[in-house]
Task: structure prediction
Amino acid sequence: MVQRGTSEAKVLLSTVSSDSHSWNLVYFTMLLTEHGYGVDCLGTCVPDELLLRAARAQRPDVIVISTINGHGSLDGARLVRKLRADPRTADIPAVIGGKLGIDGADESGVRRLREAGFTAVYHEVPPSVLLDELPGIIESGRRGLAAAQLLDDGASEGAELVGVPR
Amino acid sequence: MSGPDLHDYVRRAEAAGELVVQPRMGMASPRRMSAGLRAVAAALARTVGTITLDSYTRVGDQAGARAALAKGWDINGFPIVVHGVELTSRVAASVGGAIPVQVRHGSADPRAIFAHCAPAGLLASEGGPVSYCLPYGRTPLTESVAAWREASARFAQDCRAEGGRAHLETFGGCLMGQLCPPSLLVALSVLEALFFVQHGLRSVSLSLTQQNNEDQDIEALAALRTLAAELLPADVDWHVVLYAYMGMYPATEAGALRMLDAGARLAVLGGAQRLIVKTVAEAHRIPTVAENIQALERAARTAAAVPRRALPSGESEVLIEARALVEATLGLSTDIGTALISAFAAGLLDVPYCVHQDNQGRTQAGIDASGRLRWTRTGNLPLPRPRTRHRQVTAAELLTLLRFGRDHCDQTCDQTCDQIGDQTGVPPWRVAVVGSGPRGIAVLERVVARLAEAPACRPVELYLIDAVEVGAGRIWRTDQPGWFLMNTVAGEVTMFSGPADDGGARAGAGPTLAQWWQADDPHCPGPNGYAPRSVYGRYLRFVTGTLARCLPEGVTLHQLRATVIGLTGNGHTRTLRLADGTELVAEAVVLATGHPVTELADDQRPLAEFATGRTDLRYLRGDSASDIPLTELSPDWTVGILGLGLSYYDVITALTVGRGGEFTEVDGELRYRPCGREPRLVAGSRSGVPMLARGDNQKAPGFRYRPALFTHDRIGALRARGRLDFDRDVAPWLLAEVRLVYYGTELRARFGADAEELFRTEASTASGVPDIERLARRFGVGDLPPLRLDALARPFSGRCFAGRAEFDAALCALLRADIAEARRGNVAGPLKAALDTIRDTRAVLRRAIDFAGLTPASHRHDFLARFVPIASALSAGPPRLRVRQTLALIESGVLRLIGPDARFTVDRQANRFRVSSARVAGASVPLDAVVDARVPVPDVRRDPAPLTRALYTRGRWCSYVNRGAGERFDTGGVAVTPDSFHPINAAGNPDPAVFVLGIPTEHTRWFTQVGSGRPGPWGEFTQDADTIAAAVLAGVESRAELEVSRR
Result:
């Protein structure tokens, strides 16, 4: 279990390509830093390619997408599909949170994001929930990663059975 | 055509002593955008219209905008580039030049946007090379400055070419929205104005945002005016625009209004000529048009009431700092763009909390106890009093700072409560709600929500009374069998007036039926499933229980199972008499008594009398199916079912599944396996066809259909001209809308969403009722079978059948075709999508009908007698499964449908009932029992319930009479006032302490049998409940109001 506050975990913090809001990013940078995470914030309006590049280069323990402009469920789903399609980033846990749809709570948007490949979706949920769950998400990501590497060495069969947490 | 010059318009308003008010408003759909602009133009205020662009267009991602539109997803603004000049100019022209319209966007590179503005007649926009770069994206400042240079110069030229004058407003007075000390905002607003002027603009406005301290904000506005007057050339026209608070917005209605009021007041006191408003919805979602209009009108009213006084001037700390910042920047280069780039590189301009790579990020700001913004770190800013030593703020502190303004406004009510203190000794305000079905609970929910928002200054006692099951009501009682289903999918049902949030279920926020059901039951079929009525009853109990648990301090809720038999009293209180003899006194009484069991009608009485006193015959009268004593029907009987509507489905389900029979799926076909305890069933009605299925639901819970032709505006305008004739004035528009969806759905399937949009746009431009079928031929979908509502509802009209076999074959073929159509869905299937439109536009239809919108004859004959049966047969149908079950029952031989024009008669010779159809040869069957599967039509004159009888006979309730030139239609609905639903007594006076809601008022209003609210923006169900809640509590002074009145 990764302990809160003592983690050396690296967080890649970003938002979706159409989202220009930055207070959430400023806040999460402070919050996660204060809780012992190493945070790299990519800023606002992050093109998908920039995030993918950063994820490949940095291999963060978790990608946190914070978005509040209402396009999160559209742009986020597209982004995470790209992330999952690339074998170099497919196993990195990724979470998304904020205001994800235009008309407030939107069940189908949340479902779409989960199905597209986010490990967890936080629709209008307080940040404390993310703080509580992040160590577990990172830990299971690391275990999934280790299992995948093990299988790569020997039997690649059944890799999908072990799976990467989604 | 371009509207009035924005600056001249503002100056004219100023000369007339009026503050110009303007919303933020942007919709993806041109139709909705036009409607929004028209509403702004029609608002009771001096307004400027706004077209806010979407996030995709803002970052230049036209493909993203196009893709989202093609998939039918809503996006957060108007995609001006994708829509193009021609469509945009039509939208711009929709206000007819009555008001200026400004394009608001947020783009660091506005070249493509501006290129589409002037040619479309839109000569005003806003932004700035710094203010739309640093806070809003990752474009390098050098690129943004270059793009803005080119865009501003071209915009100025383009507007001249259109014969007008370009206007640009700086966004520099806002930047990050909050936590930026005003001196930097003033400096940047002035610098951006100078930038615009340097690139050819001769009409500009300088913005500043409202912050947390009125004195400081007034100083800032004064500094802005002083510097603008000093630095802008004499031939440049300029004015000042104030943005209502741009930070984290108050979450409560009271708090949001307080903030807006403060903004309007600040605009006047600080000498701003224009105000961009915010709405009560701001903290929660993108506001609706109506919410924007309310905000505009409120701001205008508030501003008008502020006493004018001389504007302040002179040196202030803000002015001294701002002047230092501007001068240091201008000293770097004669080219303002270059100066700005250099100033940021050197940290002479440095925005606190801004994450952009070209911002040094060495400054920090805080808020002092009075709400003034203060620099806590000045970095390299050339300020007279540098500060460098303050520690870094923490995340928690940042949140407190960001929430400062919001919390200040939201909590003001609480504070005044504390100051007022003790409430003991004040008599309670008592509210009784009679009937605890959905209508009663909805009122209760809004009453509690309102009390939580604005705490009362005296104790409030609430009474919820029901004769059958408190918290659920008779129709939805929780002990009924699980085979009786609701007729609305679970995802479209909620009894909370707002969505669930992280604060736990409470009045104003809680789960929809689907959300609750899913959490409660692992077998729940999801939001598109139909819940058993007993499950909905349990949900209603959950809602009531939630309200009981979350009552604000000083509020109590008493739940009484009791039958109310009388209501008396005048003056300030009313007395309810209960069946057990006790009396209950209340200041306000809400009567939501629901479905009545009325006296039998003339055609029912002979059937009932024939069976009276006999054990071998039964006539079971119509009622809620779970209250019909179906167990009295013997398995060896032949039972007739009168009516083929929704109750019919309930009755046959109870007599088959309810007796132990089973439906099984065999090769995709449904088969019925009888259990032997079901009677033989023979059903019939006038049409001979059971109510057809609703299309499988494909609409999201928050879906709202936005009509293009049959609109609120149109019907409102028609009603304003006088009484309507349904067939002449209303039906053609409704039918056109239905056909629009019919062909539009097919167009979308064949040619894509753009084709449908174009089709709809074109249809809505016609001046009269458009000929949709002709338009459909032009668009290439004229090959669909024509859509005729009467033919669909009466498919066997005029047909005769040679015998039972021929009729059964025709009927089964029809049912199979209907099942196939229903499977295509209510969005993808043209037919069911079209018919769903009738359901989706009920609110518009109500607007035409309610409170004597129609002439008496048209109301009675065209509407109630002819249209309503057709409309309900086609649009109120059951889930597809029910039609499949009917088909399986016919095939199994358990059920027979007799044929069109069914007659249920008394056969005295055979001593039996008899059902027959003259249109099917040989169709005549003797019956042992008749079940009347028609829900009684509400009629206050024929309702024997003791309370109704007492109210009607004593003249407290009257039947609503639709009167017209020489004709009258006595409707049988309880007469109520249109605004607060007070019953009108025999003398014609409303009872201000009593409210009547729902089914008793049917015919005064139309389609009151709605049994739930919907998620998303409030519909009439919730709005009506809230209207009553507000009126019920009108006598309870809120603590905030009391505070004001004591000042």
User: Anything to note?
Assistant: Chain A touches chain B at residues 17-20, 22-23, 25-27, 29-31, 34, 41, 43-46, 69-71, 74-75, 102-108, 124-126, 129 (CB under 8 Å). Chain A has six helices and five strands.
